[in-house]
Design brief:
- The strands form 2 sheets. Strands 4-11-10-9-8-5-6-7 form an 8-stranded mixed β-sheet. Strands 1-2-3 form a 3-stranded antiparallel β-sheet.
- The protein folds into 2 domains: about 90 residues, Enolase-like, domain 1, CATH 3.30.390; about 140 residues, Rossmann fold (3-Layer(aba) Sandwich), CATH 3.40.50.
- It has about 250 residues and is an alpha/beta fold.
- Strand 1 and strand 2 form a beta hairpin.
- The longest helix is centred in the first third of the chain and has 15 residues.
- The chain contains 9 helices and 11 strands.
């Protein structure tokens, strides 16, 4: 369950520190003293069941704050993931063989482009994707979607045990890392020999994920950290945020 989280947390080895952070209704971000930015989606709960324990503050080392990813408090875990992304999702860390997608407005079409090369002619189990089914009409192939909070034609999270054996591959997201579904499903998918991909604007570009059985990761690098910070702070939408950076895919 916790292996993937421990690997991600231990991957933060730099000496970066938090300059500021913001938690909006749907997204949060962490800005470092040296101008790096990490994003994460924030899951909203009607009732706050778990306390917020990490004392996030300016000057806090990213390596220390990253441990919050294991929290069951959604905003706290999201900030922990944002710290990991601030450390790992930087232009200097991109592998030479990575696929770098165009940024700006074209970032909004990357998911459909990505799926067009991987879901065609197969059945994919998607865990907490960032798009509703109505936005995914151009995605080829068959796909089942599971979420903690379902919408029309989605499955509840506990259906994964029934759906995974029928799937040809598994597509996780940063949201599934934050809400702990990834920890539940990833190990079983590897045991069944399913190819595993992780895609999202809050997914760490972390080669250590290969040690958990992940074959390919797509993450997001923010190009305009200050503008992204204020966009998150004023409750900017997903598409507004995506215009401020670019996606990168790395195969492991």
């Amino acid at each position: 369950m916790w292996t993937v989280y421990d690997r991600l947390i231990s991957a933060v080895k730099d000496e970066g520190v938090i300059k500021d952070f913001a938690v909006g209704p749907d997204w949060c971000c962490v800005l470092t003293e040296d101008g790096r930015m990490g994003l994460s989606h924030v899951r909203r709960e009607q009732w706050r069941r778990f306390p917020f324990k990490t004392d996030f503050k300016p000057g806090m080392p990213l390596a220390e704050a990253a441990a919050a990813l294991k929290s069951w408090n959604p905003p706290e875990a999201a900030l922990g993931l944002a710290c990991i992304n601030a450390s790992l999702n930087t232009p200097s860390s991109v592998r030479p063989d990575a696929v770098v997608y165009p940024g700006g407005r074209r970032s909004r079409g990357v998911f459909a482009q990505y799926c067009g090369q991987r879901t065609q002619g197969c059945r994919t189990l998607m865990v907490e994707p960032y798009y509703d089914r109505d936005e995914m009409t151009s995605v080829p192939g068959m796909y089942d979607i599971i979420r903690l909070e379902t919408s029309y034609r989605d499955y509840r999270y506990n259906a994964w045990e029934e759906l995974l054996p029928e799937a040809d591959s598994l597509l996780l997201s940063g949201i599934s890392l934050e809400n702990k579904l990834a920890g539940l499903i990833l190990g079983e998918a590897v045991r069944q020999g399913k190819p595993v991909y992780i895609w999202g604007p809050d997914v760490p570009l972390a080669p250590v994920l290969s040690q958990c059985g992940v074959g390919e990761v797509t993450g997001f690098i923010v190009d305009d950290a200050e503008k992204c910070f204020w966009t998150v702070k004023r409750a900017g939408s997903r598409d507004e945020i995506l215009k401020l950076g670019h996606f990168v895919t790395e195969k492991y």
